[in-house]
Design goal:
The complex is a heterodimer of chains A (558) and B (236). Chain A is an all-alpha fold. Chain A folds into two domains: 247 residues, no CATH class; 257 residues, no CATH class. Chain A is 78% helix and 0% strand. Chain A has 23 helices and no strands. In chain A, helix 2 runs antiparallel to helix 3. Chain B has a single domain, classed as Rossmann fold. In chain B, the strands form two sheets. Chain B has a six-stranded mixed beta sheet with strand order 6-7-8-3-9-10, sandwiched between helices. In chain B, strand 1 and strand 2 form a beta hairpin. Chain B is globular. Chains A and B meet through helix 11 and helix 17 of A and helix 2, helix 3 and helix 4 of B.
Chain lengths: 558, 236
């Protein structure tokens, strides 16, 4: 029975994480190409994680091991693994244990509660082990590369890692319980998720940008931190000690702490499982309807407002299709606060040059071009239109039954995409004029370029979505992250920007009879030519939307 | 009111609807019956302008859906078999959205939304996000949204699924009211007792083709509709 339950849990978990199953089997199974693509993407993502933690481990390993601080190295690696496991699994735990849709179904069957809880906890444990592996595998490889292979250390690392994941599981189960308690009292759960995800994303970005500084500090104060951890949270110290010093008593102590904590939490949850599973999840009393006068709007305005509400109701939609504008707003704020130094920092980050005096290019003359390039890059990630039609999902037939023309339906989607991108572009151009000393002509060019870029992205995205619609989804993630339209929409827009940039660089190098353009010429030509190029492509997209896409739209039968 | 003339819809190499012709007059409630996959939903979707069709014509008030779909859609209301609607909106915002799409005046929408949400006992839940509605509540909301622009023709696909007995009764009464004020109803159902009691006319479809249609009493001819239906789909 336990095996069956675990199998179901793992399937559900796999499905939640990768969302690869269709709603119905009527349209056949996935093609080989799609499977291959998902496989490659998974390998790529795993590769990125391993590479990232490998780089971190390398930065820690050399200075610490050189000074004989192997214990500190393993404590720090253990800390990272534990943190990743805890953060990575707390939401899954909350969903798996406290919000599972099949709780009532399982309760109606002759299944002991402890089996259900154990199967769910085991599934989360496997996720924890996976997250732990992302940190521990590269860290171990880096360590063995530095000091040589040691089979005993490897065994201690594997066992220590498993025990840490057990401990992390018990804490994430407790954290999940607190989270469930907090969320159940919230009126606007989606807003909380959106704010939390954005805060998490930007914290991660902040951590990533300041990684060098953090690692330097960790190396310098690692011994101090280890000592604090020994007092505050001994399991991490025990993990480090057991691996670094091949200390069996420490490993046994870690096992004991982990087993005790996981047993306590399993028993506690098993006891309260029925209460948790049958608690009132409704919203009675939270929403009180007060009659008020309803105001009218035109159909297009109503559809625009609907797009607006849909966008802000979904954290996935914001994170995957509208992040560019958030970055543009931050960029505009940074320009206002820090002035031109933001551009220097950006260029330094872009070329990975940590020397503050690493540039001999006169930035002043190229400022509008650089800002235009930044906007162009960010705008490509601002493609709400490329999945907006698919997101209609099963409501699409109802929309099609309404007295709306083709343009009534697509224009609000394009307009929302344009508005979402254009507002921060206006902020940036105003910042350029008032803070960076750009001329009114340059500021106007930046504004125009930003708006044209966004218009092109929106039209291109809409075109992709009409040509590759997907309505048979269960979770919107399938449309936002995995559909052909979002892939072609975002990568295609990036491709066009790359094409223009490449073409312009080639032209700049070979113009003037092979001598190349002067910086002054580049600054004069770059933005107007970009505006011309993207206006032309936007016009082509609009023409395709009026012809091929229109025909396809009318033939769509969701 | 609604004329379906020789409608044919082909999916791949399968005829989902095969040369189907039906005429529905003002004031008629027309029931559409058939087994699963018979072509009922496809026919209704073609009438609602959701699906293109391969042959034939569909007219509403003499207006061709092929030539002037927007004008036709202004006159009709479609209720799908599954009330999948925008879950990120609250009930009241959804109704206001629909009123905007159909250009219902402010005064009229306020009056009608209040009236129908009271009738269906949904008023207290209108501030809730639709994501928290039960299937039946969603169905009620879709029914209300279909009524607020005063359609002349209602196309309903399994409208009673998920409704509680009181809401079902209310909907039947509203269907009769619409017909008595000069409108018409074309609806599919698997509940043969409802069809038998409610419909002026009935059409039975099998494998995309119409096998019998006419006035309810003529179709049933002193037998129950269930017996007639079973005999027809098994033996014809």
């Amino acid at each position: 029975m336990f095996k069956t339950l675990l199998f179901i849990q793992l399937r559900a978990l796999f499905y939640t994480m990768f969302m690869t199953k269709r709603v119905t089997g009527s349209k056949g199974s996935k093609t080989l190409i799609k499977k291959l693509f998902i496989g490659l993407l998974t390998v790529y993502l795993i590769g990125c994680m391993l590479f990232f933690f490998g780089v971190v481990a390398m930065q820690l390993c050399e200075p610490l091991v050189k000074n004989g601080l192997d214990l500190v190295y393993f404590v720090l690696i253990g800390l990272m693994a534990f943190f990743l496991m805890f953060i990575g699994s707390i939401f899954i735990t909350e969903k798996q244990l406290y919000e599972a849709n099949d709780n009532e179904l399982l309760l109606s069957m002759p299944v002991p509660a402890v089996y259900v809880v154990l199967s769910r906890i085991t599934a989360v444990l496997l996720v924890n082990i996976l997250y732990g592996a992302f940190t521990l595998i590269p860290a171990t490889a880096v360590y063995f590369f530095r000091v040589g292979f040691d089979a005993v250390i490897l065994v201690y690392l594997i066992l220590g890692g498993l025990f840490l994941s057990l401990l992390s599981l018990s804490l994430s189960a407790a954290g999940g319980w607190l989270l469930a308690l907090f969320i159940s009292n919230l009126k606007r759960k989606k807003l909380f998720s959106t704010v939390f995800m954005l805060a998490f994303f930007f914290s991660f970005m902040g951590l990533y940008t300041n990684l060098q500084k953090i690692l330097t500090r960790l190396v310098a104060r690692g011994a101090e931190l280890t000592d604090s951890l020994r007092k505050v949270f001994p399991p991490l110290f025990l993990f480090g000690k057991s691996v670094a010093e091949k200390d069996l008593p420490s490993l046994i102590a870690l096992l004991f702490i982990s087993l005790v904590s996981v047993t306590i939490i399993t028993l506690l949850i098993s006891r309260s499982f029925i209460k948790i599973a049958t608690k009132n999840k409704g919203s009675a009393g939270k929403y009180i309807y007060k009659q008020r006068h309803l105001t009218a709007a035109s159909p297009r305005k109503a559809l625009f407002i609907k797009e607006f509400k849909r966008f802000f109701s979904s954290v996935n939609y914001i994170m995957n299709s509208g992040l560019g504008s958030i970055f543009m707003i931050i960029f505009a704020g940074a320009l206002v606060i820090k002035g031109p130094s933001v551009i220097t920092s950006l260029l330094q980050t872009a070329v990975n040059n940590h020397s503050p005096t690493g540039f001999d290019i006169p930035l002043d003359s190229l400022l509008p071009v650089i800002i235009g390039a930044v906007i162009g890059f960010l705008v490509t990630t601002n493609d709400t239109a490329c999945c907006s039609l698919s997101l209609e999902g099963k409501a699409f037939p109802l929309l099609k039954s309404m007295p709306l023309g083709y343009y009534d339906i697509i224009v609000p989607k394009i307009a929302f995409n344009l508005a979402w991108g254009a507002i921060p572009v206006v902020l940036i151009s105003v910042a350029c004029f008032f803070r960076l000393g750009c001329s009114s002509w340059e500021s106007l060019l930046i504004l125009l370029a930003g708006i044209i870029f966004q218009l092109f992205t929106a039209l291109w995205g809409m075109l992709c979505n009409i040509l590759f619609p997907k309505f048979d989804w269960i979770s919107e993630v399938m449309v936002i992250k995995q559909s052909a339209a979002s892939l072609f929409g975002i990568l295609g827009a990036m491709g066009f920007f790359g094409l223009y940039a490449g073409g312009f660089i080639l032209f700049s190098l070979n113009a003037n009879g092979g001598e190349g353009l002067s910086l002054e010429q580049v600054s004069r030509i770059a933005l107007p030519s970009a505006i011309g190029f993207f206006s032309l492509i936007a016009a082509v997209c609009a023409a395709l939307l009026a012809s091929v896409a229109k025909k396809k739209f009318h033939a769509i039968s969701a | 009111m609604l004329t379906i003339d020789n409608l044919t819809k082909i999916y791949g190499n399968k005829k989902a609807v095969d040369a189907l012709s039906i005429h529905i007059n003002k004031g008629e409630i027309y029931g559409f019956i058939g087994h699963n996959g018979a072509g009922k939903t496809t026919t209704i979707k073609c009438c609602a302008g959701i699906l293109n069709f391969d042959e034939g014509e569909i007219y509403v008030d003499g207006i061709s859906i092929k030539e002037n779909p927007i004008e036709v859609k202004k006159r009709i209301a479609y209720i799908p078999d599954n009330p999948e609607i925008y879950e990120f909106l609250s009930g009241i915002k959804y109704l206001n959205f629909i009123a905007d799409i159909y250009g219902v005046s402010e005064n009229e929408r306020n009056t009608l939304i209040n009236k129908y949400s009271d009738i269906f006992e949904l008023t207290a839940d209108l501030a809730k996000p639709i994501s928290e509605y039960s299937h039946g509540m969603k169905q009620k909301l879709v029914v209300i949204s279909a009524l607020i622009h005063k359609p002349r023709l209602m196309l309903l696909d399994e409208p009673f699924v998920g409704l509680d007995p009181k809401a079902s009764h209310t909907l039947k009464q509203l269907m009769k009211d619409i017909c008595s004020s000069g409108g018409a109803i074309f609806f599919s159902t698997h509940v043969l007792e409802v069809a038998e009691k409610l419909c002026d006319k009935i059409a039975i479809i099998r494998n995309g083709a119409l096998i019998v249609h006419g006035k309810t009493e003529e179709v049933t001819a002193n037998a129950s509709l269930e017996d007639v239906f079973l005999e027809l789909v098994e033996n014809v």
